[in-house]
Amino acid sequence: MQLAARVSQVTPSITLAISAKAKAMKAEGIDVCSFSAGEPDFDTPEHIKAAAKQALDAGKTKYGPAAGEPKLREAIANKLKTDNGLDYKPENVIVTNGGKHSLFNLMLALIDPGDEVIIPAPYWLSYPEMVILAGGVPVIVQTDGKNQYKITPEELSNAVTPKTKLFVLNSPSNPTGVVYTPAEIEALAKVVVEKDIFVVSDEIYEKIIYDDAQQVSIGAFGPEIFQRTFISNGFAKAYSMTGWRVGYLAGPLQAIKAASTVQGHSTSNVCTFAQYGAIAALTSPQDCVEEMRLGFAKRRQVMLERVSAIPGLSCPKPDGAFYLFIDVSKTGLASLEFCDKFLESYQVAAIPGVAFGADDCIRLSYATDLDTINKGMDRLDKFVRSLI
């Protein structure tokens, strides 16, 4: 069969493959410690599930507007104004099938063949693949671990060419967990304005931050950057709604209308009753978000302390999300070989950094219970010591 050329240019998801392998091993009765999944282990809060059940009972089971339920678009616009200082109207928002779909819709609506999209590495592995599927050219900018893997204004400016269309910013970051400071975000905003390009800010982890970190939206630094900003977000991480597949994209009206057209000819509307759960998530007290954040903070501290006691390993202290991005270069193994041996010999699932554009590192998720974390760290200690 002659498949489309675009498919051969895209790399299958390594994270999903490793997660599937770990689940298969567990199904065989093997005691696997999995640090691979990028999803909270907490259940979706009860009031959110209740709202979806109520919507089901009320018959909210039919087709809805392709761009999303009006009440949800309004709730998202209110959230963006209140939490992020972004004055979007409901028509500037499209509800999508998860945060990933919001980014894919944007790429299809904005990127022409040959357009360049600047992506700092380490990056979430789907960014460059989406650009390729849209016919664009991902321009990967390698960042320095000594600078916490943050792209500098100079690096961004130097990467811009006449073909540059979009810059992808992710803070808090997957896979590193780093959070850009307000001053760093503002400096990047100035480059975006000066170079007259667009920026999409992936803020899916915005509610999961620690210590004195402060999450700010790049579009909040004045009208010029606001006009060039897209916001990608969703309900998966903050509200533990990964399987609900509800996300959103906000931005300039012309592009949002275009994204709605794309969605209208692909998936149509997001699951109707799931959107009512999302409305409840935004309009109800946020105590559940804080409870989960505190749980992640405790796990982060335990995993950080355990990793820091293992010779040869190092990683930046994450200020957000629920990942450690660990430099394993001193073991002498590239990331994929490291993760393969770790899973096969010690039954621990980790994600190789090569998937994120950093082959010297691995990603561990601490979105799991403390018993699993401690057991897995015991195994990591033994594995690394056996190598070095």
Automatic annotation (TrEMBL):
Domain Aminotransferase class I/classII large as annotated: residue spans: 31-380
Uppermost EC category: transferase
UniProt-recorded name of the protein: Aminotransferase
InterPro entries given in the database record: Aminotransferase_I/II_large, AspAT/PAT-like, NHTrfase_class1_PyrdxlP-BS, PyrdxlP-dep_Trfase, PyrdxlP-dep_Trfase_major, PyrdxlP-dep_Trfase_small
Family membership: Belongs to the class-I pyridoxal-phosphate-dependent aminotransferase family.
SUPFAM superfamilies the UniProt entry points to: PLP-dependent transferases (SSF53383)
Cofactor entry: pyridoxal 5'-phosphate
Pfam families linked to this entry: Aminotran_1_2 (PF00155)
Molecular function per GO: transaminase activity
EC number, UniProt record: 2.6.1.-
Keywords noted in UniProt: Aminotransferase, Pyridoxal phosphate, Transferase
Source organism (scientific name): Floridaenema aerugineum BLCC-F46
